[in-house]
Amino acid sequence: MNPIFERIREALASKVSDTSEAHGVLVLQIAPGAVLDAAGPLKEQFRFDMFSDVTAVDWLGQEPRFEVVWHLYSTAHKLRVRLKARVSEAEPVVDSLTGLYGSAHFMERECHEMYGIVFRGNADLRPILLYEGFKGHPLRKDYPKELEQPLVPYREGFEMPGGE
Question: Per the structure, how many domains does the chain have?
Answer without folding.
Answer: 1
